[in-house]
Amino acid sequence: MRFTSLVVELIRARPRLVVWIVVLAQAAIWLLVPLILYGSPPGDLATVLAFGREYQVGTDMGPPLSFWLADIAFRAVGDHMFGVYLLAQVCAVATFIVFYHLARAIVGGPQAVLAVLLSMTVVVFSSPSVEFGPLILARPLWALLLLHSWQLIGQNRRSAWFAWSIDCGLLLLTTPAAIGMILLVAGFALATARGRRTLMSVDPLYALLVIVVLALPYLIWLIRADVLALPPLPAIAGLGARATRWGVVLGGLIVAMAAVVLLAILNSGWFARGPEDAPIIYRPPVGPLAQQFVYFFAFAPAIIGSFVAGLFNFDRVFGGAGVVLLMSGLAVVVATGDLVHLRRQRLLRTVWALAVAGPGLAAIAAALFLPWTSTTEAPTSLPAVAMGRFFDDSYERRTNQRLRAVAGDPQLASIIALDGRRPHLLLDASPQRTPWLSIAKFNQTGGVVVWRAQDTAGTPPPEIAQRFPGIVPEVPRAFDRLVNGRLPVLRIGWAIVRPKG
User: What's the alpha-carbon Rg for the chain, to the nearest Å?
Assistant: First the structure.
């Protein structure tokens, strides 16, 4: 008698339930880890909130939608990072639920579960899950764009045009890579006969009108700011270095697929006694157009995104790894065939769980054990709440006014700007990035200038002393991290710029 595990039976009978369970479990991990272990926001999240607080139509960090949503989520829970972390996980859950619906339309519900499980190992491993920003918000919007594109091209559902246009408009308000994403969809439609028939109607014109209306404010800002230009192309002598950079970025994407490759090898029939011993996940046949759709959007975004990153010397793949690798799991499932044998189920479950939980375990180890083994400071170890309260209270006691702005070291200043009264952030080294506040206006309205103290006197760095002449440094303030370990106590030098008049 053949034994079939409960997990396999659930995949066959209740595929949607399985997807919700694994997606919510993964989201719970990445919601609890930062709430428990992070003293300050990871990555550029503090800067994202500082920019979102100003509600600018556009900045040098990109379109405004993710910054606005981050500030709304932050304020909605009483100026606490819980709202932003929760928003990031809502985006993660929405991404995989939409991706499941797309996969189900192509390979059926049971194999769509396998596609989601495989893509989770890639997306979670290859890109951050808590640093809400354009890269995080673009994931569910890209999944929605692919779903509605397949409904238009593969299922001939004209009613999807309006939703498709909304997806495009929101993407344009989210990431600079949106134009490339939309062009990829348009290119696939033009390259296929059914896609060209879909475009031969008046519906695309109405969709284009909706997209223009949604993106018009940001487009006007781009024109006024005179930033509608590509980064400078490399010189001929530098093409070799850029090609190497392309290879490095593309290699990083291949490494991110390591868990999928390992799962495929472990599930192969090379060492199995016979296929009849393994349970089978069946699907209806996948047509040629569906195969072309899956393979195109599994490979083209990764290849083109890594090429653009190499050409313009970006530090990561253009569009984000979570976007360009989203379809990888579905591509593996489509390539496997109509019958997927699940061999060595216990080993497969263990490897998958380690691949999904691995980044979370690494974050825990970095927060608790890295300070004892290294002198490298974890960016999330800074005590954001204590820092914000101290400088806000100190400024108010000295001037009898609330703290209006903070400048100096960008990392420290952006963290202090998260204080409950939300002072403005001034990036004094590059004031054009913060057009809502200039150095002259900062000196007029007053604020706090902060830096990392290198001595007990709190002498400001020469560049800060040059930009703020006449500041009188206060006694440096020492703060304890969550785990100091071998690191010295965090000492912050600071000075008050008193408001004029």
Answer: 25
Q: What is the 3-state secondary structure (H, E, C) of 410-426?
A: HHHHHHHCCCCCCCEEC
In a domain, 179, yes or no: no
Q: Please give the full DSSP string across 171-233, using - where no structure is assigned.
A: HHTT-TTHHHHHHHHHHHHHHSHHHHHHHSSSHHHHHHHHHHHHHHHHHHHHHHHT--SPPPP
Number of alpha carbons in the 13 Å side-chain half-sphere of residue 74: 25
For residue 208, count other CB atoms closer than 10 A to its CB.
12
Between 266 and 134, whose confidence is greater?
Answer: 134
Domain boundaries, position 394: 379-497
The pTM is what? 0.92
Contact 217, 223 (CB under 8 A): no
Other C-beta atoms lying within 10 Å of the C-beta of residue 432: 8
Indicate if the pLDDT at residue 211 is higher than 80.
Answer: yes
pLDDT at 295 over 90: yes
Q: DSSP label at 473?
A: B
Domain-located, residue 292:
yes
Structure tokens at 484: 């100091």
The DSSP result for 282-349, as a single string, is E-PPPPHHHHHHHHHHHHHHHHHHHHHHHHTT-SS-TT-HHHHTTTHHHHHHHHH-SEEE--SHHHHH
Q: What is the pLDDT of residues 226-246, one digit of tens each?
A: 766 667 777 777 778 888 888
Cα–Cα distance between 452 and 476 in angstroms, integer? Answer: 9
> Are 155 and 300 part of one and the same domain?
yes
Residue 370: name the closest of 481, 263, 454, 470 by CA.
Answer: 481
Contacts of 98 (CB under 8 A, 6+ apart): 140, 143, 144, 147
Q: Is residue 330 part of a domain?
A: yes
The number of residues in the chain equals 501
Say if CB 39 and CB 382 are below 8 A apart: yes
Distance between CA atoms of 305 and 181, rounded to whole angstroms? Answer: 10
In which element (H, E) is residue 280 found? strand 280-282
pLDDT, residue 99, reads 96
- Beta-strand pair 405-408/424-425: parallel
In a domain, 246, yes or no: no
